[in-house]
Amino acid sequence: MKKKQDNARLMQEIEQIGIVPLVTLRSDEEAVPLARALQEGGVPVAEVTFRSPFALEGMKRIHSELPDVMLMAGTVHNVEQAEASVAAGCVGIVTPSFDEAVVDWCLDNDVMVLPGTAAPSDVEKAYDRGLRRAKFFPAEAYGGVKTLKALSGPFAEMKFLPTGGVNLKNSAEYLMQKNVFAVGGSFPVPSDSQKAQDWDGIVTACKLARHVAEPIILAKKQDFVIA
Questions:
Q1: Number of independent structural domains in the chain
Q2: Which of 30, 60, 135, 159 is the catalytic position?
Q3: CATH number for the domain including 59?
Q4: Domain-located, residue 78
Q5: Which residue among the candidates 30, 47, 60, 220 is catalytic per the annotation?
Q6: For 207, which DSSP code?
Q7: b/e code 95-121 from CB counts within 10 Å (16+ = b)
Q8: What are the per-10-residue average pLDDT scores of the chain (227 residues)?
Q9: What is the domain range of residue 77?
Q10: Cis amide leading into 96 (omega within 30)
């Protein structure tokens, strides 16, 4: 019998790291060295997206060779992709919008899910299903920090993973919001570094992201941040 997954613990781990790198693979072969660079840079999380045909094989390789890296599937559009991702070793599913079929499948199968939300109606759907964590996408296009502050009133228990327009420069402003538990984006995986297979460049980018996130995470723990 499959051991029940501790989704609450996984969410806590993401919150402690504060950064969720968006990974769109250019080949099967780069999956492991890229994920290893994330790990070495202090960001042992990989949201491997279905924006690439190499996603599933990359997930399998990362899971096989780097089991300590928290593996998540991103840009999941249907239940079939969710099922295949979990079979490949993913512990979490991230969707670009609130897809009820995918969310309900994840909940029924004890799979951590971060559904995409952009409007109060999306957040309400997540809340009604017992979820207290969701993705906020596309963050910058939908008002960014200003919208997150507005959502904190009627949805005080909800916390968000803003992605879409989040970068190294504005990540601190997002992370300082009380209803943000982590930020996501491709900035820990610079496209030039990935294209050149400059894994040290990705390690450096991850360390920079962690340098921004760590003091804010610590301050939040101690209730120093009032956003």
A1: 1
A2: 135
A3: 3.20.20.70
A4: yes
A5: 47
A6: H
A7: bbebbeebbebbeeeebbbbbbbbeee
A8: 81 97 98 98 98 98 98 98 98 98 98 97 98 98 98 97 98 97 98 98 98 95 62
A9: 7-216
A10: no
